[in-house]
Amino acid sequence: xxxxxxxxxxxxxxxxxxxxxxxxxxxxxxxxxxxxxxxxxxxxxxxxxxxxxxxxxxxxxxxxxxxxxxxxxxxxx
Length: 77
Description:
Elements: H1 25-28, H2 43-56, H3 60-74
Helix pairs in contact: 2-3
């Protein structure tokens, strides 16, 4: 039998309804149009991205692509 929990410190606040902030499924699977390019990067940079990607179990190429996308988006104006 489970022991009933009795709270003795401070009032218990009422539950709040949180708005649904998650995107709908069709927005989670979109694919942007991509263009293949050839680029020469320093060995140091590639080793860094490969190391970080391995830690987070993602592709180093996706990390680099995401970095470039973020940079472009911030400086597009």
